[in-house]
Amino acid sequence: MPLGFRKVALQAVGTVLVLCGLIVWLDHGAAQPVWEEQETVELPILMYHSILKDSARQGKYVVSPTVLAADLDALQQRGYRTVTVSDLLAFVQQGAPLPEKPVMITFDDGYYNNYVYAYPLLQQRGMRAVVSIIGAQTDLYTQDGTENAYWSHLRLDRLREMQDVFEVQNHSWNLHEYGVRRGCLRRRDESEETYGDILREDTAQTQRLLSEAGLPVPQCYTYPFGACSAESEQILQEMGFACTLGCEEKINTVTRDPACLYQMGRFNRAAGESTEIFLNRVLEG
Questions:
Q1: Could you tell me if 108 and 132 are in contact, meaning their C-beta atoms sit under 8 angstroms apart?
Q2: pLDDT tens digits, one per residue of 12-33
Q3: In this structure, what are the phi and psi dihedrals at residue 118, rounded to the nearest 5 degrees?
Q4: What is the pLDDT of residue 37?
Q5: Would you tell me the crossing angle of helices 192-212 and 230-238 to the nearest 10 degrees?
Q6: Which residues does 117 contact at the CB level (< 8 Å), separation at least 6?
Q7: Whole-number Cα distances in Å, 167 to 105, 131, 199, 209, 246
Q8: Nearest Cα residue to 34 out of 101, 118, 113
Q9: The pTM is what?
């Protein structure tokens, strides 16, 4: 064999071996999605309430559809993907993967305007969200039939219709008040036994309402006003809730430990702050 030909053949064999080694390395290393190896994921949760076009109504708990749309677009542009409570439970309990950059979008109270404005905006973008309803209000407007973007709450038929986007969770039956009682906390004049009975029955009413309507039974309790205590946490966990949402503004660290899903923090979205400033504050902690 001529020397020149032998040299070329050896070079060709060497190149093939290098390429084979590179393919093996990619197959076992760099080609694997980062999240498959993660045991810890940082999760920001955004908290919305009412969505209205009327600028006179916008404030701490009301933003416009334009603001919501800008927030959603910016999240997608930054590479964030929406997750629900069920996704978190699958990650914690079953080892299922989460997106590399997950974000949860929540809507508290279950206003009808969430159907009018938030639902189509999320649906158009292929995004999901969590809506936490006040059971007594959903029951009232289901029976009454009224739908008004300014003040009514979601009926059961709307909750069923929106299941492709919204996961429904429990925001109490009728403890969303701030008077003699602060949310679902125990009053000073109540015994532990009396308080436990009240919280259990109030919470169970919303669970029954949704279950009897053919909707999935909530696995997450969203605290009215974010007010929680060691007592309420113990009772809710005993009732089978695997997650609770509060209002402390912090980024959550989700691990394989089920305890990480309790008293999760959220960032309230108020009017008067640009999308860029809001998301920079939220996503950077």
A1: yes
A2: 444 434 344 433 333 443 333 4
A3: -70, -40
A4: 54
A5: 50
A6: 51, 52, 53, 65, 68, 149
A7: 10, 6, 23, 15, 17
A8: 101
A9: 0.86
